[in-house]
Amino acid sequence: MQAGETLRMDEERRIPPFAEDILTVLTDAAGGTGEELPRDEAIEVITDNERFDKADAEAAVESLQSRGYVYYVGEYIRITPTD
Fold it and tell me: Which label site among 44, 47, 58, 83 has the fewest CB atoms less than 10 Å from its CB?
């Protein structure tokens, strides 16, 4: 793999700053990476923070999922392990 390929892969996984904040909120609420939350609870945890409304929460979760930071198992959102 060449340096340019690595850079493109990193850019594909990059998420907007608000999604980074939401990933931190979800990770803390779930108890760490590799853990899970029911989807409805995850949205509620995010919207409890006054900075985010439901549309922000859903957009961020979709962004995180499409880039591999979280994934779904049934109605649960799991935080992708980082180790």
Answer: 83
Asked whether residue 29 carries a pLDDT value surpassing 80, the answer given is yes
* pTM exceeding 0.85: no
81: which DSSP letter?
P
Sole residue written with tokens 């892969």: 9
Beta bridge pairs of residue 72: 77
Return the domain boundaries, the chain: 16-79
* CATH number for the domain formed by residue range(s) 16-79: 1.10.10
Burial bucket for residue 35 (CB in 10 Å: 0-12, 13-18, 19+): middle
